[in-house]
Specification:
Shape: elongated
Largest sheet: 2 strands, antiparallel
Strand content: under 5%
Order of helices and strands: HHHHHEEH
Length: 168
């Protein structure tokens, strides 16, 4: 298996995911944006995506392993896109999250079920729009990034499937 072929997918995917992750951390530290529960969840998915790509680069698997890593990366990107889509949806209709919820810092001390619910469904902190660039909010930028990151393994998996059919 050619190392250049492997790097043609996993290395750029790793670099893009690390760039997006660093940008989100810089927005937190330089601009002063405080991440909400869904932001943390999206960062987790982005970190998992980067770890999958890094593991694939280090492991240098065969064709079957490349497909497995591609599916894992695609799953992380789709999961992140779903979380970002939920975040965009909550910001579009803030009344979806009514009721009294604990702040994220206090949720860490709560049972795991409540923490998981907040990380997946969002908290009232998630509906505030505190930053935008080119008229897109941060969750919308996150959604675009996850769709781009999903396109990388999806295109590779599709091309791989077409190559297999051409050989058959």
């Amino acid at each position: 298996m050619s190392l250049a072929c492997l790097r043609s997918f996993f290395l750029p995917a790793l670099l893009v995911s690390i760039t997006v992750l660093v940008a989100s951390l810089r927005l937190e530290s330089v601009v002063g944006l405080v991440p909400c529960a869904l932001c943390f969840s999206q960062r987790l998915m982005l970190g998992l995506y980067a770890l999958v790509c890094l593991a694939a680069l280090i492991h240098r698997p065969g064709t079957r392993g490349q497909r497995s890593y591609g599916w894992l990366a695609l799953g992380c990107a789709v999961g992140g896109a779903l979380l970002a889509g939920r975040h965009v949806w909550l910001q579009a209709d803030p009344q979806l999250l009514e009721g009294c919820h604990l702040p994220l810092a206090q949720l860490i001390d709560q049972p795991l079920g409540e923490l998981a619910r907040a990380l997946l469904m969002g908290t009232p902190d998630c509906v505030s729009i505190s930053w935008s660039f080119l008229d897109l909010t941060l969750p919308e930028w996150s959604l675009l990034a996850f769709l781009l990151l999903a396109a990388l393994p999806l295109s590779w998996l599709t091309a791989n499937r077409l190559r297999q059919r051409a050989w058959d």
